[in-house]
Amino acid sequence: MFELRYKGKVSLVFFLMQLFSMTTQGAFAQNPLNEIYSDVTDKFGIKIATNGLGFNYRHIEPFKNKLCQSIDVDFTSLKHPVEKDIINTRLAATRPYIYNKVNRVYSLRALLGGQYVFAGRTSKNSVGISGFAGIGPSFNFVKPVFLDVQTVDPNNPNAYIVVSKRYEPEVINPTHIVGNSSYFTGMGQTSINFGMAMKVGMEFNWGSYSSEYKSIELGVTVDYLPVAPTIIFNKKNKAVFSGFYISFAIGRNK
To answer: Given Cys at both, which of 39, 88, 195, 206 links 225, Cβ 3.0 to 4.6 Å?
Structure first.
Protein backbone atom coordinates (compact mmCIF):
# COMPACT_ATOMS: atom_id res chain seq x y z
CA MET A 1 0.00 0.00 0.00
CA PHE A 2 2.89 2.36 0.83
CA GLU A 3 4.52 1.65 -2.51
CA LEU A 4 1.26 2.40 -4.33
CA ARG A 5 0.82 5.72 -2.51
CA TYR A 6 4.45 6.64 -3.19
CA LYS A 7 4.10 5.92 -6.88
CA GLY A 8 0.91 8.00 -6.96
CA LYS A 9 2.73 10.99 -5.46
CA VAL A 10 5.61 10.67 -7.92
CA SER A 11 3.16 10.46 -10.84
CA LEU A 12 1.38 13.64 -9.72
CA VAL A 13 4.67 15.56 -9.42
CA PHE A 14 5.75 14.31 -12.86
CA PHE A 15 2.40 15.40 -14.34
CA LEU A 16 2.74 18.90 -12.89
CA MET A 17 6.28 19.22 -14.25
CA GLN A 18 5.16 18.17 -17.73
CA LEU A 19 2.20 20.56 -17.63
CA PHE A 20 4.46 23.39 -16.55
CA SER A 21 6.95 22.65 -19.34
CA MET A 22 4.30 22.65 -22.08
CA THR A 23 2.44 25.72 -20.86
CA THR A 24 5.28 28.13 -20.07
CA GLN A 25 6.96 28.08 -23.49
CA GLY A 26 6.75 31.61 -24.81
CA ALA A 27 4.49 32.75 -21.98
CA PHE A 28 6.82 35.50 -20.78
CA ALA A 29 6.74 37.58 -23.96
CA GLN A 30 4.09 40.13 -23.03
CA ASN A 31 1.34 40.47 -20.47
CA PRO A 32 -1.50 42.68 -21.81
CA LEU A 33 -3.72 42.01 -18.80
CA ASN A 34 -0.95 43.35 -16.53
CA GLU A 35 -2.42 41.74 -13.45
CA ILE A 36 0.29 39.38 -12.25
CA TYR A 37 3.47 41.32 -11.56
CA SER A 38 2.29 44.62 -10.10
CA ASP A 39 -1.05 44.05 -8.39
CA VAL A 40 -1.91 43.23 -4.80
CA THR A 41 -4.19 40.21 -4.77
CA ASP A 42 -6.60 38.62 -2.30
CA LYS A 43 -8.27 35.29 -2.84
CA PHE A 44 -10.58 33.04 -0.87
CA GLY A 45 -11.44 29.42 -1.56
CA ILE A 46 -12.46 26.01 -0.32
CA LYS A 47 -10.17 23.03 -0.25
CA ILE A 48 -10.61 19.28 -0.38
CA ALA A 49 -7.77 17.38 1.24
CA THR A 50 -6.90 13.88 2.31
CA ASN A 51 -7.43 15.20 5.85
CA GLY A 52 -10.89 16.61 5.10
CA LEU A 53 -12.50 19.86 4.00
CA GLY A 54 -11.26 23.33 4.74
CA PHE A 55 -11.04 27.02 3.82
CA ASN A 56 -8.17 29.14 2.58
CA TYR A 57 -7.35 32.84 2.30
CA ARG A 58 -4.23 34.26 0.66
CA HIS A 59 -2.93 37.81 0.42
CA ILE A 60 -0.29 38.36 -2.27
CA GLU A 61 1.92 41.41 -2.82
CA PRO A 62 4.56 41.91 -5.55
CA PHE A 63 8.15 41.74 -4.34
CA LYS A 64 10.61 41.61 -7.22
CA ASN A 65 10.13 40.76 -10.88
CA LYS A 66 7.95 37.63 -10.95
CA LEU A 67 8.39 36.91 -7.23
CA CYS A 68 5.62 37.80 -4.77
CA GLN A 69 5.34 37.58 -1.01
CA SER A 70 2.28 35.96 0.50
CA ILE A 71 0.33 35.55 3.72
CA ASP A 72 -1.71 32.37 3.90
CA VAL A 73 -4.47 31.56 6.40
CA ASP A 74 -5.78 27.98 6.35
CA PHE A 75 -8.44 26.25 8.38
CA THR A 76 -8.87 22.51 7.97
CA SER A 77 -9.38 19.28 9.89
CA LEU A 78 -6.69 16.74 10.72
CA LYS A 79 -7.67 13.08 10.61
CA HIS A 80 -6.18 9.79 11.68
CA PRO A 81 -5.65 7.39 8.72
CA VAL A 82 -7.63 4.55 10.35
CA GLU A 83 -10.88 6.46 10.89
CA LYS A 84 -13.93 4.39 9.99
CA ASP A 85 -17.65 5.20 10.15
CA ILE A 86 -19.85 2.54 11.73
CA ILE A 87 -23.49 2.32 12.78
CA ASN A 88 -25.10 0.40 15.63
CA THR A 89 -27.61 -1.98 14.04
CA ARG A 90 -28.92 -3.25 17.39
CA LEU A 91 -30.97 -0.11 17.98
CA ALA A 92 -33.52 1.69 15.82
CA ALA A 93 -32.96 5.15 14.32
CA THR A 94 -29.21 5.17 14.96
CA ARG A 95 -26.69 7.42 13.22
CA PRO A 96 -23.13 6.81 11.96
CA TYR A 97 -20.18 7.66 14.17
CA ILE A 98 -16.43 7.07 13.92
CA TYR A 99 -15.36 4.01 15.85
CA ASN A 100 -12.98 4.79 18.74
CA LYS A 101 -12.54 8.44 17.69
CA VAL A 102 -12.33 10.37 20.95
CA ASN A 103 -11.18 13.79 19.69
CA ARG A 104 -11.60 15.94 16.60
CA VAL A 105 -8.65 18.13 15.58
CA TYR A 106 -8.91 21.33 13.53
CA SER A 107 -5.86 23.27 12.41
CA LEU A 108 -5.66 27.03 11.89
CA ARG A 109 -2.46 27.83 9.99
CA ALA A 110 -0.82 31.24 9.54
CA LEU A 111 1.84 30.86 6.84
CA LEU A 112 4.34 33.33 5.46
CA GLY A 113 5.89 32.55 2.12
CA GLY A 114 6.39 33.40 -1.50
CA GLN A 115 4.81 32.87 -4.87
CA TYR A 116 6.67 32.75 -8.18
CA VAL A 117 4.88 33.48 -11.45
CA PHE A 118 6.02 30.96 -14.05
CA ALA A 119 3.51 32.15 -16.65
CA GLY A 120 1.21 35.15 -16.51
CA ARG A 121 -2.19 35.37 -18.18
CA THR A 122 -1.43 36.94 -21.56
CA SER A 123 -5.03 37.05 -22.77
CA LYS A 124 -8.58 36.31 -21.66
CA ASN A 125 -8.22 32.76 -22.92
CA SER A 126 -4.84 31.97 -21.34
CA VAL A 127 -3.99 30.31 -18.04
CA GLY A 128 -1.53 31.69 -15.51
CA ILE A 129 0.74 29.33 -13.59
CA SER A 130 2.42 30.05 -10.26
CA GLY A 131 4.32 28.03 -7.70
CA PHE A 132 4.15 28.84 -4.01
CA ALA A 133 5.47 27.75 -0.64
CA GLY A 134 4.80 28.87 2.91
CA ILE A 135 5.68 28.00 6.49
CA GLY A 136 4.48 29.20 9.87
CA PRO A 137 2.78 28.40 13.17
CA SER A 138 -0.43 26.44 13.54
CA PHE A 139 -3.09 26.55 16.22
CA ASN A 140 -4.70 23.13 16.57
CA PHE A 141 -8.05 22.87 18.33
CA VAL A 142 -8.64 19.49 19.99
CA LYS A 143 -12.35 19.00 20.63
CA PRO A 144 -13.63 15.90 22.49
CA VAL A 145 -16.21 13.71 20.78
CA PHE A 146 -19.61 13.29 22.45
CA LEU A 147 -22.08 10.55 21.58
CA ASP A 148 -25.78 10.02 22.27
CA VAL A 149 -26.03 6.88 24.37
CA GLN A 150 -29.11 4.90 25.42
CA THR A 151 -29.26 4.42 29.18
CA VAL A 152 -31.79 3.29 31.76
CA ASP A 153 -34.05 6.08 32.97
CA PRO A 154 -33.09 6.68 36.63
CA ASN A 155 -36.70 7.61 37.36
CA ASN A 156 -38.15 4.56 35.64
CA PRO A 157 -36.06 1.37 35.57
CA ASN A 158 -38.32 -0.09 32.89
CA ALA A 159 -37.68 2.73 30.39
CA TYR A 160 -34.68 4.05 28.46
CA ILE A 161 -33.54 7.57 27.70
CA VAL A 162 -30.84 8.99 25.43
CA VAL A 163 -28.13 11.10 27.03
CA SER A 164 -25.03 12.76 25.63
CA LYS A 165 -21.74 11.42 26.98
CA ARG A 166 -18.11 12.02 26.22
CA TYR A 167 -16.91 9.09 24.14
CA GLU A 168 -14.90 6.73 26.31
CA PRO A 169 -14.62 3.44 24.37
CA GLU A 170 -13.42 1.53 27.41
CA VAL A 171 -16.52 2.59 29.38
CA ILE A 172 -19.41 2.95 26.90
CA ASN A 173 -21.02 -0.23 25.59
CA PRO A 174 -21.07 0.07 21.75
CA THR A 175 -24.46 -1.67 21.60
CA HIS A 176 -25.97 1.34 23.43
CA ILE A 177 -24.59 4.02 21.10
CA VAL A 178 -27.20 5.95 19.10
CA GLY A 179 -24.78 8.22 17.20
CA ASN A 180 -22.93 11.53 17.38
CA SER A 181 -24.26 14.23 19.69
CA SER A 182 -24.75 17.80 18.50
CA TYR A 183 -21.50 19.16 17.09
CA PHE A 184 -21.47 21.98 19.66
CA THR A 185 -21.69 19.60 22.62
CA GLY A 186 -18.40 19.74 24.51
CA MET A 187 -17.18 22.86 22.74
CA GLY A 188 -16.17 24.35 26.07
CA GLN A 189 -13.75 21.46 26.67
CA THR A 190 -11.72 22.24 23.55
CA SER A 191 -7.98 22.59 24.10
CA ILE A 192 -5.30 24.20 21.91
CA ASN A 193 -2.17 22.44 20.72
CA PHE A 194 0.48 24.61 19.06
CA GLY A 195 2.56 23.39 16.16
CA MET A 196 4.22 24.21 12.84
CA ALA A 197 2.92 23.82 9.30
CA MET A 198 4.13 24.17 5.74
CA LYS A 199 2.50 24.13 2.33
CA VAL A 200 3.84 23.89 -1.21
CA GLY A 201 2.07 23.59 -4.52
CA MET A 202 1.04 24.96 -7.91
CA GLU A 203 -1.71 27.41 -8.85
CA PHE A 204 -3.52 27.60 -12.20
CA ASN A 205 -5.59 30.77 -12.68
CA TRP A 206 -7.78 32.19 -15.44
CA GLY A 207 -10.34 34.94 -15.96
CA SER A 208 -11.95 37.29 -18.44
CA TYR A 209 -10.93 40.45 -16.56
CA SER A 210 -7.63 41.64 -15.12
CA SER A 211 -9.27 42.54 -11.79
CA GLU A 212 -10.92 39.16 -11.12
CA TYR A 213 -9.90 35.57 -11.65
CA LYS A 214 -10.57 31.99 -10.64
CA SER A 215 -7.95 29.43 -9.66
CA ILE A 216 -7.28 25.80 -8.91
CA GLU A 217 -4.45 24.77 -6.62
CA LEU A 218 -2.76 21.41 -6.24
CA GLY A 219 -0.43 21.01 -3.32
CA VAL A 220 0.90 19.25 -0.26
CA THR A 221 0.60 20.25 3.38
CA VAL A 222 2.65 19.05 6.35
CA ASP A 223 1.70 19.69 9.98
CA TYR A 224 3.90 19.00 13.00
CA LEU A 225 2.40 18.93 16.49
CA PRO A 226 5.04 18.52 19.23
CA VAL A 227 2.39 17.01 21.50
CA ALA A 228 0.63 14.34 19.45
CA PRO A 229 -3.14 14.65 20.02
CA THR A 230 -5.14 11.55 20.88
CA ILE A 231 -7.57 11.09 18.00
CA ILE A 232 -8.20 7.34 18.00
CA PHE A 233 -8.39 5.43 21.26
CA ASN A 234 -5.85 2.62 21.68
CA LYS A 235 -3.99 3.52 18.47
CA LYS A 236 -0.63 5.16 17.97
CA ASN A 237 -1.37 8.83 17.41
CA LYS A 238 0.74 10.86 15.02
CA ALA A 239 2.73 14.05 15.55
CA VAL A 240 3.15 14.64 11.80
CA PHE A 241 0.20 14.93 9.40
CA SER A 242 0.75 15.21 5.67
CA GLY A 243 -1.48 15.00 2.63
CA PHE A 244 -2.48 16.27 -0.79
CA TYR A 245 -5.15 18.87 -1.38
CA ILE A 246 -6.98 20.62 -4.21
CA SER A 247 -8.38 24.10 -3.76
CA PHE A 248 -10.94 26.12 -5.74
CA ALA A 249 -10.73 29.87 -5.21
CA ILE A 250 -11.91 33.26 -6.46
CA GLY A 251 -9.40 36.11 -6.47
CA ARG A 252 -9.39 39.85 -6.98
CA ASN A 253 -6.58 42.20 -7.89
CA LYS A 254 -6.66 45.55 -6.14
So the answer is: 195
Q: Is the pLDDT of residue 16 over 80?
A: no
Whole-angstrom distance, CA of residue 130 vs CA of residue 219: 12
pLDDT at position 18 is 52
The whole-number pLDDT of residue 229 equals: 93
Beta strands 128-144 and 156-166 are: unpaired
Question: Is residue 166's pLDDT more than 80?
Answer: yes
Per-residue pLDDT reduced to its tens digit, 97-143: 999 999 999 999 999 999 999 998 777 778 999 999 999 999 999 99
Sequence-distant (≥ 6) Cβ neighbours of residue 9 within 8 angstroms: 244
pTM, whole model, 2 decimals? 0.78
Q: Cα–Cα distance between 218 and 103 in angstroms, integer?
A: 28
> Judging by beta carbons within 10 Å of its beta carbon (0-12, 13-18, 19+), is residue 23 exposed, middle or buried?
middle
- Angle formed at CA 235 by CA 192 and CA 102, multiple of 5 degrees: 45
Report how far residue 70's alpha carbon sits from residue 232's, in angstroms, rounded to the nearest whole number. Answer: 35
Cα–Cα distance for residue pair 74/76, rounded to 1 Å = 6
Q: Kindly list the strands in the beta sheet with 146-153, ordered across the sheet, starting from the edge strand earlier in the chain.
A: 156-166, 146-153, 177-180
